[in-house]
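On clarity, I found the account of how folds are encoded harder to follow than it need be. What matters is that the chain and its backbone geometry are given together, residue for residue. I therefore recommend that a typical entry be quoted early in the introduction. An entry of this sort, consisting of the sequence and the corresponding backbone structure tokens, reads as follows:
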Amino acid sequence: MAKKSATQRDKTPNSPWEHCPWEEADAYAIQALFRGDATDVQQRRAMNFIVNSLCALPHLAFDPKNQRNTDFALGKQSVGHEIIRLMRLKIGQLTGEN
């Protein structure tokens, strides 16, 4: 079986625990975000990679052949949903500000 290229972004792993495809720019963006010196573009790229690729939110979590795969995938997606929830949270409403 041929090794998957890091640039095959449209390919999804066969199992939810397999590493997702990534590009060099994704790794740079994640590292810069972690260091706290990411550019605006890197910040968006890192968050998109985390939510869409690592948490696999655009994909169906259900595996009709394996309940454990479904459970694992749903766990990953739960993290993504919490990140999205916090990104959309209107903090001003919590603090009484607009």
